[in-house]
Specification:
By secondary structure, the protein is of the alpha/beta class. It has 11 helices and 12 strands. Strand 4, helix 3 and strand 5 form a beta-alpha-beta unit. Helix 1 crosses helix 2, helix 2 packs parallel to helix 3 and helix 6 crosses helix 7. The longest helix is centred in the middle third of the chain and has 19 residues. The N and C termini lie close together (about 5 Å).
Amino acid sequence: MAVQFGVHIGAQNATVEELRALWKWLDAAGVDWISLWDHLYEAPPAGGTQPHFEAFSMLGALAVDTSRARIGCLVFCSQYRNIGVLMKGAISVDHLSGGRFELGMGSGWHDQEAAAFGIDFPSQGGRFKVLEGQLGAITKWRSGERVTQTTPGVQLTDASMVPGVMGKMPLWIGGLGPKQTLRMAGAYADGWNAAYANPSQYKELNGILDDWCVKAGREPSAVERSINLSYGLSNDDIGAVKSQLEKQWGAASERIISGSLLGRPEDAMEQIAPFIDAGAQMVNIAIRPPWNQELLAEYIENVLPAMRKEWS
């Protein structure tokens, strides 16, 4: 399968008009994938001091503004919505997009925004229990079943989804956890997304996912593999970009930097190659607005075609 290339967008620090213009251009330029993230506050966290829009409402605009790219959310936080409400929203966006929507789920990490809005945010283990129950319900709804279920965070009584998904609505699971996240990906997912891993870590996790697929009685090839890389292309010195990431992310900056594209656009292919070698089938750049349109255009219009030719 040819490698695909996408863009993951934070709906922050930009106007609605700017965001819509961005993804319309990306779709016309031929990117394979466009996704948004699911946050109520900015990422990296800054105490809710920066403008940020909500994911589902923006996905509705993304669906009708585009016509060819696969679209989705990498990923919805399992704690933020009743699972029935979330699935209803996903199906609505799926129909708005003509069947291009793909549902991403994860356990979340942004405890600052959860605390601010009074959202229950248990331990990681507790969030995994909620997520797995949701994945079970989603799997049944995608096949047209009605669902009765009582699991942590999920209470459903003969709950239907009418209309249903337009096609299959592929299910993605995002995260780096080898024991729980990858186990669930192996059992339930059509795709797995890792954010800001380095190539050696990504390769190791890919192998672990293969093992979980086999244990679940599935072929490893049934689960598409993708990576989100923090977009740090710049004409500035790499050291300056790293310093900015360190300031923004603090203790998490080492991991973010190790999973970033840094340097000039012409350096991108060399940095992406190890992820392809490690098994990535789709490479997404994660854009945190504002962005330099000239640099981004160089990557999208010149670097991507060269990479497609290399890894077709």
